[in-house]
Amino acid sequence: FVNEIKHGPIFLNGVGVSQIHTTLDMDALPAEKRQALNTAFAGKPPIEANTTIGFGGGSSYDVVLNPLKMTEAGSTISVDGAQLAGQASADMVGDFTLHIGKVEGKEGNSQFTMPSADASGDVKGIVAGQALGTFDLKVPQVSILAEGTTEPFLFDLNVKTASDIKDNELEANVVMQLDNIKGVKDAVSKVQY
C-alpha cells in the first residue's frame, strides 16, 4: 500500500493531527497482476482509504472499493463498489457503516445477484481479538438461478448479532432471518434441520 500522510491543520474545525490517504501500490505488483487489476477496475485504483487521526488517538475513516468487473473462462463477476465508513476511539470503540453495491456472478446458465447490502455496527470493546457490540446486516432480494432451473430463488436476508461480557463470560446472540422467499417450489419444506 501507498500512504500519503499530511499533518495538520491543528485545532481547526476538529480536524486531527494526521490525515492519511491510502491506495494499493500498483507499481509493486508484477505486470500481469497490475494489468488484470487495471482491466477489472477500469483504470481506477482498486481501493482508496482516507483516515483522520485525532490528538487522543481516535480516528475516522472512509474506505472505498471501486467498481470492478472480471471475466474469465466463461464466468463473470461484477461489484458496483463498496464503502466502509466509521469512527473509533483509541481503544477501538466506535461505530461503522458498510454499503456494498450490486454484486452479480454468472457462470453458464447459473447466476447470483445481490442488488445491495447494508451493514452497521456499534463496537463496545475488543476482547481477545473479538469485537463486542451489535451488528446488523440487510441484503434485500438476493437472487440465485441454478443451472437447469428457469425460476430464480429469491429472498431478503437479515442478520443481527449482539455480544458482550457478562459475569466474566462471553454472551452472544445471532439472529438470521430470510423473508419474502419466492421461487422455491417447495424446496425449503424438504430441508431437514
Which class do the helix and strand fractions yield?
mainly beta
Radius of gyration: 21 Å
Poorly predicted ranges:
186-193
The largest pleated sheet is described as: 14 strands, antiparallel
Overall geometry comes to flat
Order of helices and strands: EEHEEEEEEEEEEEE
* Helical amount: under 10%
Oligomer: single chain
Number of strands: 14
Write up what this structure looks like.
5% of the residues lie in helices and 60% in strands. The chain contains 1 helix and 14 strands; from the N terminus they run E-E-H-E-E-E-E-E-E-E-E-E-E-E-E. Strands 1, 2, 3, 4, 5, 6, 7, 8, 9, 10, 11, 12, 13 and 14 form a 14-stranded antiparallel β-sheet that branches. The chain is flat.
Write the layout of secondary structure elements.
Layout: E1 2-7, E2 18-23, H1 31-40, E3 47-53, E4 59-65, E5 68-72, E6 75-79, E7 82-88, E8 94-100, E9 103-107, E10 110-114, E11 117-127, E12 130-145, E13 153-166, E14 169-182
Antiparallel strand pairs: 1-2, 2-3, 3-4, 4-7, 5-6, 6-9, 7-8, 8-11, 9-10, 10-12, 11-12, 12-13, 13-14
Keywords:
single chain; 193 residues; mainly beta; 1 helix; 5% helix; disordered C terminus
